[in-house]
Amino acid sequence: MNKAELRKKYKKLRLALSEEKIEELSLKIANNLLNLPVWEASFYHLFLSIAEQKEVNTEFLLHILQGKDKNIVLSKTDIKNNQLEHILLTDSTVIRKNRWNIPEPEAGIPITPQQIEVVFVPLLAFDENGHRIGYGKGFYDNFLKECNDNVVKIGLSFFNTEIEITEIFSSDVPLDYCVTPTKIYDFNK
Q: Domain span at residue 179?
């Protein structure tokens, strides 16, 4: 399927999920993440869920990272430049929703993409080759290109893989893993 068809399909599938189902599936995803070989790193980039888009609830993952005393990095959207700014989450970080309902830090300690070792990537769909589609603005692809070559990219999805996403561009950055409620997909093999 092409990207436009997949966006439509998966937005519809997500919108059909109840809040209770989202919580249940998000907890399963967080528990599956514990089986990945990524917990020795120090800097983890986490997206905060857009509840209105019925995204995977990353609050469970946030608690895991805090419990492991990891440095958690959040993004602030720079719409004008199609870029993300990266801010270290601290006890004094103020989170507010922007005009697109994306929860983001207002300000804080900047972190460079090269400092980040693991990135949890939002997505709508992914395929057997680790290619993903998001909302189509390229924020995460732009960000991931700025990271070091060893950064681990982990998608989070309520749904299993598609066979293939057509219309893959050279600017699309593939995932290393994608974690669902029932499976871990490893694209490094």
A: 3-186
Q: Which two tokens stand for residue 134?
A: 């998001």
Q: Please count the structural domains in the chain.
A: 1
| 99 labeled part of a ligand binding site | no
Q: Please check if 154 is assigned to a binding site.
A: no
What are the angstrom distances between the C-alpha of 180 and each of 27, 94, 154, 177?
Answer: 10, 30, 11, 10
Q: What DSSP state is assigned to residue 101? A: S
166 dihedral zone (left: phi>0; alpha: psi -120 to 50; beta): beta
pTM: predicted TM-score of the whole model, two decimal places:
0.95
Could you tell me the CATH number of the domain that includes residue 39?
3.40.50.10420
pLDDT tens by residue, 114-151: 999 999 999 999 999 999 998 877 899 899 999 999 99
Amino acid at 1: M
Q: Does the annotation flag 55 for ligand binding?
A: yes
50 is in an annotated binding site: yes
On whether 108 is known to bind a ligand per the annotation, the reply is no
Residue 5 labeled ligand binder: yes
Residue 137 labeled ligand binder = yes
Q: Is 185 annotated as a binding residue?
A: no
